[in-house]
Amino acid sequence: MVSFEPTQIIREPNFTLPAGKVRGHPLSRRGSKIPLKYGRSGELLFKNMSLFNKEELDLKINKGRSRPLAYRMRPRSLDEFVNQRHILDEGKPLLRAIKADRLTSVILYGPPGVGKTALASVISNITKSLFLHLNATTTTVKELKYILDQAKQRVRVFNRRTIIFLDEIHRFNKTQQDVLMHDVEEGNIILIGATTHNPFFSITPALISRSSIFELKPLSIEDVLKILKQALKDKERGLGKLKIKISQETLKLIASASDGDARRALNILEIGSLTTKPDKDGVINYTMKVASDCIQKKIVLYDKKEDAHYDTISSFIKSMRASDVDATLYWLAKMIYAGEDPRFIARRIIICAAEDVGNADPQALVVANSAYQASEFIGMPEAKIPLAQAAIYVACAPKSNAAYLGIEKALEDVEKNYLLEVPDYLKDSHYKGAQKLGRGQGYIYPHTNKEAAQKQRYLPEKRRYYYPKDAGFEAKFKKMLDEKERLFKENNSRKNDVY
Asked: Which residue of 30, 52, 407, 493 is 20 to 30 Å from 453, comparing CA positions?
């Protein structure tokens, strides 16, 4: 039996809607004036109510209690949406799909406070489809299957699409994501997933292949300033009814401290405005000190198992490799400030010292290893000093990756080509019967006859893996090896060459 088709189903993500009753929900109280009815399947239906059009609902449910400023200031249309021009500029596929109400399943990926939920809010105001907002942290498989079944019936009976906005989609495990896959593929639902995690790590490949991925970038300081000024002027949803005196420098401080997170910037603005006592004229003086007190310790986006972690360490290593000392110290400071394990940082300095400095300055590896031992011995916060010393040394040292390239080339040769046999004169001769097998015969000991030893090859075929560079100490290696090769060619006739 099919339920009556509603204009909108309102479901709070943190409770289940049982048939015939909504326990503890404000709308179940007597005297509620909001139009509602129960469908035949027991779902609570609200007529003519969009999930994101909450202003009227807030007034009736919360009886005047205010939502957070960041919540109230969500854009209501694409014109109010700030930034993300790389995906929402005129002619872009996503913008055309939203305006034409022909959206297909998408994954919105980006850091907090850049507009993922806000964009879903705008879509909910534009679309004629049924729009449902779910949160992956509180939605069960049973609830999800019920919603998907209703969506399938809605398409079959009413020819109406269902858009499901699934916030924190990365919280769904593989089994939960697989539940969505069939209905996404058949078009029974349009999925809008929002996540702060890289979807290629946190979303199943099958679901990714059925969705378009759109990355939202952090907001610029100018974008955040625009949002803050809108909130200060807006009398309906913002702080426009308050007499707030705030300088451009203070707004810039808030915008800078937010690191492209509009929600954080609006929270700082709201806390300072609501907790600062007005003067005798009713003016709230939002000063630099008020802003600093509200900001407190700056939050650095740095997830130790996700993109921010690997992107930052990658930038750190590449800065050392390119001898950019200031960039090296900046990325090091970011990791230290965010609480990264100093041993992890030290290990990466050691790797860079061996791979990118190599024999151009062998001392770099010694310094890096000493920094690792020191960081373990003294711990943080003092460990930042030897870490900085080692990072600067590696950044400033002459660079050569010849040792790294050499072992990579040799490994590739061993893996892909036939293995060379050890020449008899290089084989072990320290066991009984070795001489009868010819082991060790003809070997020339370099310490007793250096000139004669130069006539021998130590591979049965000539191979070349190590190409030292004219950088730092390695230039001496290059000169020595070139000279050795020249002497070998002079001292050996073709018949004595061992290849």
From this structure: 407
Residues 6 or more apart from 167 whose CB is under 8 A from it? 116, 117, 133, 134, 135, 136, 194
Give the DSSP H/E element, type plus range, for residue 407: helix 402-416
**Chain centre distance of CA 230:** 29
| pLDDT tens for each residue of 31-56 | 333 333 334 333 334 333 344 444 44
Q: How many Cβ atoms from other residues are within 10 Å of residue 9's Cβ?
A: 20
Contacts of 339 (CB under 8 A, 6+ apart): 302
Higher pLDDT, 457 or 248: 248
Percent of the chain with pLDDT over 90: 27
Query: What is the per-residue pLDDT for 298?
Result: 60
3-state secondary structure 268-316: HHHHHHHHCCCCCCCEEEECHHHHHHHHCCCCCCCCCCCHHHHHHHHHH
**Nearest of 120, 12, 129 to residue 75 by alpha carbon:** 120
Interval 296-318 mean pLDDT = 74
Residue range(s) in the chain whose domain bears CATH number 1.20.272.10: 307-396
CA separation for the pair 280, 22 (Å, rounded)? 48
Long-range contacts of 270-279 (CB under 8 A, 24+ apart): 270/68, 270/69, 270/70, 270/239, 273/239, 273/242, 273/244, 278/243
Residues 6+ apart with CB under 8 A from 304: 340
Per CATH, which fold does 221-295 belong to?
A: Helicase, Ruva Protein; domain 3 (1.10.8)
Instruction: Compute CA distances 35 → 12, 24, 44, 313, whole Å.
Output: 17, 18, 11, 55
Question: Going by DSSP bridges, is the β-strand pair 106-109/190-195 parallel, antiparallel, or unpaired?
Answer: parallel
Q: What does the alpha-carbon distance between residue 367 and residue 353 come to, in Å, rounded to a whole number?
A: 9
- 398-412 pLDDT, tens digit each: 999 999 999 999 998
Question: Which are the contacts of 50, defined by CB distance < 8 A and separation ≥ 6?
Answer: 8, 124, 125, 131
Give which of 195, 186, 142, 185 is closest to 165, Cα–Cα.
195
CA atoms within 13 A on the CB side of 160: 16
Split at pLDDT 50, 70, 90, the class of 496 is: very low
Amino acid at residue number 183:
D
**Top CATH class, 8-215:** alpha beta
- The CATH T-level fold of domain 307-396 is Zinc Finger, Delta Prime; domain 3 (1.20.272)
Question: Are 154 and 31 a contacting pair, CB within 8 Å?
Answer: no
- How far is the C-alpha of 93 from the C-alpha of 252, rounded, in Å? 33
Q: What is the pLDDT of residue 453?
A: 61
